Amino acid sequence: MKHRGRHRRRRRGQALRATLAGTALALTATATLISTSQATGSGTPGALTPLTSTAATGELRLHESLVARGTLDTLTKGMGGNVGVDGVLASTDHSMRDRTDCTADERAALPVEPTATRAYCWDSGDARTRQWQPRSVTTSGDADDDGRWGAHRVILAGWTHDDGPAAATPAHHGDQAATPARDDGLARVAFVDATDPHALKYRWVLLVTPRDGGKNFTAVHSGLGGMVWYQDKLIVTAAQGAGLLVFDLHRILEADVNSGAVGRVSGGYSADGYQYVLPAIGSYDVPGGTCSTAGDKAVPCFGSLSLDRTTAPDSLVATESSTSGTDRSRVWRYSYSTAAHRTGLLADSQGYVDAVEAYETKAAGASGVLSHTPSGGREAQWYLGHTPDSRTQHATLWRQTGSGAGAATCTADQSHACWGLHTASLSYWQETGELWTLTGAATERMLYAVPLSSVDHSLD
Predict the structure, then answer these.
(1) Which pLDDT value is given to residue 296?
(2) Model confidence over 121-156: pLDDT tens digits?
(3) Which has the closest alpha carbon to 406: 389, 418, 394?
(4) Looking at residue 62, what is its pLDDT?
(5) How high is the pLDDT of residue 287?
(6) Would you state the pLDDT for residue 42?
(7) Strand 154-161 to strand 132-139: parallel, antiparallel, or no bridges (unpaired)?
(8) Could you write out the three-class secondary structure of the chain?
(9) How far apart are CA 263 and CA 212, in angstroms?
């Protein structure tokens, strides 16, 4: 891992391929064509339309607000100092199952075309996966161009609480809570140690916000539709997609009281039974007013996020969240700062962050977004996952450019519904050439990887 206070050296040439474990799994699925509300007459979303006017890009402007350093230091000191990513990974208490040990329902969520080369499902005995939904993924391949955080390869998976009755579980000082999470939108992250591809292990970390000058904290509420780990910062979508929250991976803290409360309690700090918390250090808010997914397009709600390492400087890619009746939406990017004292933060101008590129797409309601310019290419390829309203139909992964769109076809009727079932955000691991995502249906929760080259080869 390189020192993150310096501008890192950009790798040249083709990214190295890691040896991919497992064999491709042939799957069959019944699918239908993408609805006409999501496609042009040609059966595809067509080309991206650039948004170049000052008015259009101005709607995407963000205002940066950082928590006072003294507040963060007070909370860190009060909770015994930073545990760090290594501390969390050293105490992993759940093991992921390899594809061969997953159920038939779980494996049915994997893509039909192209097939996944790596696939895992969550610990079936982990009570913390009930009433929770996996929504986003990022990796140490985003964090650093060597693909590692220290000695570890790490995957972060963002989950949000789905309100509803949950069974109480035995209490201990770990990730089993004496009382279940009670509030819809509670957000937590699985820190997955993926150093050994045959033995993935994970631990939960609760997202919180400091308050009272760092003497206390409250739980973060977010759908976690998007999440990017870059250098030492983690950026996630805020509640209802109204902006972004920022976290510092050097400030993972440990709760010392095991109870259902969140924050300071008699005797120390509690985090609803979680052992570790990650406090927010700032936010990026949309100053134009309340965001909306209803199609007015004035102030966008953030849907999904990803990192693009093929731009200079590296950039954060976003898509807006929109309702099923919307026939188009926007995708755009912000540049990361290259200043040594602003590692992992977005490039700002007097506290504001402006989009450096924006497009309109007819692939509305995207459940994941990725931008990548191939080696020697002049134009970025935009990958957009579309999840249909049907709970039984596989998603479609579109690749769009300024000249057109394409997607894999599968089954006898040549459907484009070939991607995973209820897939969430996308993350590209540059070192290995893998595209990572996860599925979020109640009984079909998988974390899987597909070589990006296989995605491209499968397109029409």
Answers:
(1) 55
(2) 999 999 888 889 999 999 999 999 999 999 999 999
(3) 418
(4) 95
(5) 87
(6) 36
(7) antiparallel
(8) CCCCCCCCCCCCCCCCCCCCCCCCCCCCCCCCCCCHHHCCCCCCCCCCEECCCHHHHHCCCEEEEECCHHHHHHHHHHCCCCCHHHHHHCCCCEECEEHHHCCHHHHCCCCCCCCCCEEEECCCCCHHHCCEEEEEEEEHHHHCCCCCECCECEEEEEEEECCCCCCCCCCCCCCCCCCCCCCCCEEEEEEEECCCCCCCEEEEEEEEEEEHHHCEEEECECCCCCEEEECCEEEEECHHHCCEEEEECCCCEECCECCCCEEEECCEEEECCCCEEEEEEEEEECCCCCCCCCCCCCCCEEEEEEEECCCCCCEEEEEEECCCCCCCEEEEEEEECCCHHHCCCECCECCEECCCEEEEECCCCEEEEEEECCCCCCCCEEEEEECCCCCCCCCEEEEECCCCEECECECCCCECCCCCCCECCCEEECCCCEEEEEECCCCCCEEEEEEHHHHHHHEC
(9) 11
CA distances from 358 to 87, 252, 383 (A): 39, 34, 14
The reported pLDDT for the residue numbered 184 is 62
Report the predicted TM-score, pTM, of the whole model to 2 decimal places: 0.87
Q: Which residue has the tokens 């039984």?
A: 392
CA 148 to CA 171: how far, in whole Å? 33
Could you give the CA distance from residue 215 to residue 326 in angstroms, rounded to a whole number?
Answer: 44
Average pLDDT, the chain: 84
Long-range contacts made by residues 181-185, C-beta under 8 angstroms, separation at least 24?
181/131, 181/132, 181/272, 182/260, 183/219, 183/221, 184/221, 185/160, 185/161, 185/221, 185/222, 185/223, 185/239
Greatest C-alpha distance within the chain:
64
Half-sphere exposure of 191 (CA within 13 A, CB side): 27
Task: Give residue-wise pLDDT tens across range 161-170.
Answer: 875 433 333 2
pLDDT lower than 70: segments of the chain: 1-43, 163-184, 294-297, 323-326, 390-391, 412-413, 460
CB 73 within 8 A of CB 384: no
Distance, CA of 320 to CA of 297 (rounded, Å)? 9
Q: Given the structure tokens 């769109």, which residue do they identify?
A: 405
Q: What local confidence, expressed as pLDDT, does residue 323 receive?
A: 65
Token pair, residue 91, equals 């105490």
